[in-house]
Amino acid sequence: MSAATSNFVRRIPEGEDRERLTCADCGFIAYENPKIVAGSVVAHDGRVLLCRRAIEPRRGFWTIPAGYMELDETVEEAARREAREEACADIAIEGMLAVYSIARIGQVQVMFRAHLATPGFAAGEESLEVRLFAWEDIPWSELAFPSVHWVLRHWREAGAGPLGAPRGNPPEDPRGTGRLLQGA
Amino acid sequence: MSAATSNFVRRIPEGEDRERLTCADCGFIAYENPKIVAGSVVAHDGRVLLCRRAIEPRRGFWTIPAGYMELDETVEEAARREAREEACADIAIEGMLAVYSIARIGQVQVMFRAHLATPGFAAGEESLEVRLFAWEDIPWSELAFPSVHWVLRHWREAGAGPLGAPRGNPPEDPRGTGRLLQGA
Q1: Strand, coil or helix: what is A85?
Q2: Which of A112-116, A137-141, B27-31 has the lowest mean pLDDT?
Q3: Which chain A residues have a beta carbon less than 8 Å from that of B101?
Q4: Which among A30, A33, A162 is the nearest to B71, CB-wise?
Q5: pTM, whole model, 2 decimals?
């Protein structure tokens, strides 16, 4: 395989109303749609499972187990896979806690409330370490992304009761256009 | 632009664990992630707005206003845009009615409950006609996709009260692998 010499340009394909990333050589259109991030607030004995990221963006910062949904899985399966990959954790999903739109980076984040189905966990390949934090010990200033703040706050507000309607973006950032880096 | 001569192959990129669609010439990786479909059950005077599709797949069959979410919008904005494009309808979203995973075709469908914010509607470019149907007049045998059946049934079950937790795939198809064609 040669080094990258791709020749993609932005142009409006025939019959469409907006620019698409198109290969000027072969006409291939790489449709760019928002990506789904599936994640979970995973509790155990009242504490919350967080992973310290081993990869960019935001290497060294803490996040919940979450990542891009793949083809051939449901949103719940994606959330369980991410917990397995990032925290070697086997989780049981309780329900949908929140759905956030992060328009600036083209993400929809579907966040579940979950608990450890079996007590073990460990750092997966994309994590430097994985720990359970009591609420008062959460490293707020070292969280990786704004939506990690959002979802932890929403998890706390929801308590242990029925989840009801999923929470959305907080009023201060209704479209997910905040300046701080988001990622998965 | 020349005719399509793209040279995409499926191979496992370095550092990854699954095959990706990769251009054999330039190395460009076209990540294929699930796409988000945003749609709404739009009510007016107790009747439901349906659109008869002017495009494939399932041309001539009835569906709710729904379609692929684009970049730079929230899920709610996408649902409102689709209602505008397909039914020339200005809708007010009441809440999230359902989230379906259609694993077989890589879709997550986020369905809202909505009503007409202003009384007018008309067939948009992708619709042959748009009509309000009383529940007993819904053309069940002419609905375009299984998830249109699901969401209408879920809308009916929800009634007019608080929506609570979003509904998911029905028990008979928990992963969205049904044989019938799905689409947006």
Answers
A1: helix
A2: B27-31
A3: 73-77
A4: A33
A5: 0.89
